[in-house]
Predict the structure.
Amino acid sequence: MLAVAGRTTAQDAHVQITVHWDKIVQESRTSPTLQVVVNPPLRRGTAVHDNAFKALHDLGADYVRYVPWLPYPRLGVAELEPPKDGKTSWDFSLIDPMTIDFLEATKGHSVVLNFSTIPQWMYKTDKPIAYPDDPNKALWNYEQGTELRDATFQEVADYYARLLAWYTKGGFKDEYGKQHESGYHYSIPYWEVLNEVDFEHRMTAQTYTRLYDAIVSAMKKVQPELRFVGVSLAIPGQNPDFFEYFLNSKNHEPGMPLDYISYHFYAVPAPDETLDIQQHTVFAHADGFLNTVRNIEAIRKRLSPGTGTMINEIGIISADDIAQVDPNHVTKTIPDSYWNLAGAEYAYIFAELTRLGIDVAGESQLVGYPTQFPSVSMVDWNNGKPNARLWVLKLLHDNFGPGDKIVEIAPASPVAPDSPYLTDLAVVTKTGKRKILLVNKRDRNLELSMAGAADGRFDYVDVTTGFQPAASTKLSSDKLMIHGFSVGVVTFP
């Protein structure tokens, strides 16, 4: 057994946490990972590129999500103009370098590709949508329209089949039968079908399900063993009917695979909240999201229990980021301790998703920067070196994962609640190590005492480690103090 007593200020009630190491609750199936969103700082030759891709490689995570996204059409859309007079506009010259760097950095690990932006010309609009010649210039209104020009959806499906063939089969034949050679034969085990369709083109569940079936059917002809991720909602709590419809196999073509569903969560503090206030609201938002997860899990288990779940965007979006659409907006300075708060939020959600049996918990995102959601970045956008959010992910990745045995943690007492400030997760790993994850949800120190921890090791990321890797210390006694927003792992001797 492990006894932990938490004590800080007068407002912190004494809490006793008891872990029964011999009582297994369940086996973990949750993989901690991240998403990589395509944007200009990740292009070759920038100050960010080398360090960011090195950090991605060194992490060694599975289920890494790669998303060429709508603001940069030239970096994410391979056919920017419709075929005409026997000619096509297929061009991967700007897309390949970053995509290949991603596939090389993650080689040996599973990836989830999501070329999320359908070529705009495939949608009906009053006039063609122009896009910048400069690939680095953002265009937030590239995606327009709600009705595809091809009512059968085959045009979109064929586009995605050709994308897949470019990277896995060495090339493809275009709409006029001309062969385009890439020479690439990468392993892509998972493909996510579109992104945040409740926002992008405002798709209904019915439209998305038809489009999913068309795309999956076409891509499986290229790679029969490919597995698919569907739904990918931005605001899942507002769309329970979407899951009800999509997860009902009667609404799909016969034999259509429903391998995984996905959806997202960002805490969004109000504009007038200081960091001191955000430490309260961020975790309250997270608790609300976890209730959404429980509701969606109930739907999934009822309709399609064999379908897995990837929650593949988790983070905080600051109110200042929301204001970035104003061309005169000036990004506010982000205090260093914010990155620790965001890291603690992710670690807390990871712990709870592990208990809920979610397959993938993906932190968002590798690179953000002023004008492109800087508050979600996992690296310094000036040089690509990891900030505390990425070091927290590495700490979790290196210590927890599928196959761990989650063990029972008893209530603090029959009448007293557990600490509202400290979250823990106790496991016995696949190699037999006893570990406990500790997440301090407040920007103040917590003093702990842990029976049997002496001669163990404590690895942690907190406000004292800053942008440096996790620190480590050998425990000389059963007592331990953890700093504000600490994410730490105690490995018992």
Observations:
- Residues 91 and 379 are 30 Å apart (CA to CA).
